[in-house]
Amino acid sequence: MAENKIFAGPKVRRIRNTLGLTQTAMAEALSISPSYLNLIERNQRPLTVQLLLRLASVYKVDIEDLQGEAGGSIRQLRDVFADPLLSGELPGDLELVEVAEAAPNVAGGILKLYRAYREQASRLSDLADLLASEGRATAIAGARLPMDEVREALEQRANYFDGIDVAAEAFHAALAPGDDLLGALKTWLRKEHGVVVRVLPIHTMPTLRRRFDRHSMRLFLSERLSHHGQLGEVAMEVAQIALNDQIAQALGGLALSGSEARRIARFELARYGAHALMMPYDAFFAAAQRARFDLDVLRARFAVSFEQVANRLTTLQRQGQAAIPFFLLEVDNAGHRLRRAGAQGFPQARFGGGCPKLNVHAAFAQPGQILVDRLEMPDGFGFLALSRTVEGPQATFGERVRRTAILVGCEASLAKETVYGEAVAALPPVAAGTACRFCERQGCLARAEPPVTRPLGLDEMVAGLSLFDFQ
């Protein structure tokens, strides 16, 4: 207690005001001077052990209440003011401490109002999605970050940009890289633009994976990156130079509202261009058809990662040369949906991607293995779902590995055209849904939320299998 100084001025002031005491009266009861009490109440002096015991004895105060910190409320208040709706209104830590310490009931009220606001925003979003799935567009919208705007723009269209793909294919043919694409791209950067690629140790770039120094014309890569990761970063740099006009044209077609959203979208389009350089359309399309879309065979043939080949598989939608319309979903182990793409606009209405039963969540228990499922939605529609974990940059000792999981899916009726068709045909279907809030399956053991389309069933005499029974 002596080592951890306790500043509890607002709490002492609240005790005094509740009892209707002056500073002089309280100071006399505690055997300290009024000026010292004044410093304590303004958090300019800590409470000593003796003074803590005296407060507890004289005013019957729980010492734990005086020692307890408002750290939890402060963190929650900080989250509230980090909302895009309150952009630019974030108070300093001192103000948050003052609110949490001096007016805990006010802080609690703010947090309750914010939780209610987020719940209503979530319900409005669910309602908008539900109406949109029925073909009725709505103007319901909440505050969105630029990243959310970009994701929505990319998810609602086909994941194919013809201009970028055609230019990438022509560039790859002229480059003629043979079996060493990474080496050929580095040579092109050096000869054509004077850019030298260097791999730096972790201690030199502890928080960066890539950095371009315009003054020295050097592209620095972190040694955390695998060979596939280095290839992807160098290909992105080349795409931003060689495919600049095509990327700008594709960017103009997305109709984004702000400069930050356009900057993020340009980054995503550059990554698309990098994949197009690494896996040229004609060659990749032919290989995918021959391998019957075996992702492991394709990533080995093009010397790329599972994540890179999965992303490329969703882009094979060239007119007159289209493959199975695959879609992709990426999540982390906390269930956050990081990316959705493919199938000529992500199939939100029928697939959703928010069901806990999806094998993309189970993949974390079996890292590195492809899990195959046949999903059956409430309307009887079916999907083939392939899921596998992917690793992020190399972690050092003591760091937690970044691991996400990718689901690649297509309509179940097309599964026979893939190498996974026979395996999935022998599996019993998994009764999945778009998301718990839209799913009306009774007795679902995995249900995490009640459906917005049904009232809750509150019956003291009967309890169903689900945590959220509904009528």
From TrEMBL:
Q: Which residues form the HTH cro/C1-type domain?
A: 12-66
Name the source's superkingdom: Bacteria
> What PROSITE patterns is this protein classified in?
HTH_CROC1
What GO cellular component entries does it have?
Answer: cytosol
Q: Does the keyword Metal-binding apply?
A: no
The alphabetical list of record keywords is: DNA-binding, Transcription, Transcription regulation
Q: Which family does it belong to?
A: Belongs to the short-chain fatty acyl-CoA assimilation regulator (ScfR) family.
Q: What is this protein called?
A: HTH cro/C1-type domain-containing protein
Q: Which organism is it from?
A: Rhizobium subbaraonis
